[in-house]
Amino acid sequence: MVQAIVREEQQTKQEMKVLQNQPRENVYETNNLNLWYGDKHALKDINLNIQENNVTAIIGPSGCGKSTYLKTLNRMVELVPSVRTTGEINYRQRNILDKGYSVEELRTKVGMVFQKPNPFPKSIYDNIAYGPRIHGIKNKKVLDQIVEQSLRGAAIWDEVKDRLHDNAYGLSGGQQQRICIARCLAIEPDVILMDEPTSALDPISTLKVEELVQELKENYSIIIVTHNMQQAARISDKTAFFLNGEVIEFDATDKIFSNPSDKRTEDYVSGRFG
Amino acid sequence: MVSQKREKSLDVQQMIADKKNKGLGRKAEKLVPTILFITAAVSVLTTIGIVFTLIFETIEFFRRVSFWEYITGTEWLPFAGEPSYGILPLVLGTLKVTGIAIVVAVPLGLAVAIYLSEFASDKVRRVIKPILEVLAGVPTIVYGFFALTFVTPMLQKIFPSLEIFNALSPGLIIGLMILPTIASLSEDALSSVPNAMREGALGLGSTKLEVALKIILPAALSGVLASVVLAMSRAIGETMIVSLAGGSTPLFNFDVTGSIQTMTAYIVQVSTGDAGYGTTIYYSIYAVGFTLFIFTLIMNLIASWISKRFREEY
């Protein structure tokens, strides 16, 4: 509820800025980020500012560090035992790499959708209600409302409204992925990180998720890692091209795909490698 | 071209054909399944044999003692001048010990399993798991005299009214004995829940404990419950510990501080005593053994029902 109020305030600010033609605020400011897996230098001097209420795509060949970077934004990367970082990532002006920054707090603000749909082995309802419940929302009526609102938000309400208490694993892959998006929306995060969310889906489901991303950017800042360059071109406002752990180019998506400044970007987006 | 090449190189196809027709290869191919079938049949036949022996001797017992008296009687006095064969005191003795064991083993075993699967580092896990398995490998006779000569005296300092033979001490020790079963099997069930579940839950801002209790444990419930039921059937069938530390007084009450007798301990008492072949007492151990068999059979059925009923798809 508090988050909803904060969100409303942010939205009003946002509207005012649009009216006054001010630049959007940055949700993330990454300064000189380096990351190692053991001895492997996976991210090298990353400097990247990500604006709110935008879709930011991260593209690049396999092993270029794009997923690693995404997972650093909600510190999911720390699940790998031997990981080490230097530099800073400021999320809304606070450095999330500070030891004092609570990961639970960060991940409550920054939701994540994974490559393979990973609903919990519970009912559809319980999947969506899980997030609000662990954050202390127990009231049945409120939960009902959140579940409906989130499923509508993820454009899957009509498909599942009659079987909310069935196991989520009875759904198709594409539906499961939208359940995972709804699960993420249920705690009304500020940012949604998406790690190749359509790579395990068929073309029609992919289209649905892409349309959804377009709708969601009204209210959320979305950062999406994708292997699919057409997808990045279709849905994103800005695109970052990663190669060998470095950011080669970061610019408006139109520019990246029509008139890139760097030769390597041009080679990649025109399909010459990767 | 092709024929030229063939002449130059080794004729591998020909070598394979030669090898196949010679040697044991072909015969073994036919013989081995037969041998394996016989091996499997031996274990099945043994089981059938045991069950039939139990059934025949039990029928003989019920020719002498009424079935109704047996299952409802509250006095088990086979050695009295006027013997009475009511199984309930023995069943109650077994249930008391099993109950105490489960109360000890389930919370501790689950705690160990959750710790090992969700919190412990690889290093810690590599040290603790083998130690747990050692605990499972201790001979039960050792547990038995440990209960009698160490645990009971200790407990007597806390509860002075505790008798030398009682249900509490062997119950606690059986709990300790079945703890590794619960911990190890539950740990397997918990750690086979895919990591994607953990990531999904952590990504929503859950703490590790919330992930363990609200996502991983429910997802692994079938394996966890099956481990508990399996441990229970081991507790029910446990013999040495209760024979040594439980006593041999079958009483129909709910007191855990006094001497008891379990079904297994009664069988030991008669088998090692001098009851003659063909006496009612002799047949009674088959009836008790059959009862015990029914109990563990029910436990196994429950276990397999649970693992089907609560199987989580992921």
Q: What structural keywords apply?
A:
heterodimer; A: 274 residues; alpha/beta; Rossmann fold; 6-stranded mixed beta sheet; 11 helices; 24% strand; B: 314 residues; mainly alpha; MetI-like fold; 2 domains; two-stranded antiparallel sheet; 75% helix
Number of strands of chain B: 2
- Characterize the largest beta sheet of chain B: strand count, sense, and whether it forms a barrel: 2 strands, antiparallel
Say what the CATH topology of the largest domain in chain B is. MetI-like fold
**Assembly of the depicted chains:** heterodimer
Q: What share of residues are in beta strands of chain A?
A: 15-25%
Number of H- or I-type helical stretches of chain A: 11
Overall description:
By secondary structure, chain A is of the alpha/beta class. Chain A has a domain of about 180 residues: 3-Layer(aba) Sandwich (Rossmann fold), CATH 3.40.50. Chain A contains eleven helices and ten strands. Chain A is globular. The mean pLDDT of chain A is about 90. Chain B has two domains: about 60 residues; about 230 residues, MetI-like fold (Orthogonal Bundle). Chain B has 14 helices and two strands; from the N terminus they run ααααββαααααααααα. Chain B has a two-stranded antiparallel ribbon with strand order 1-2. The N and C termini of chain B lie far apart (about 55 Å). The mean pLDDT of chain B is about 90. The chains are: A alpha/beta (about 270), B mainly alpha (about 325). Chains A and B meet through helix 3, helix 4 and helix 7 of A and helix 9 and helix 10 of B.
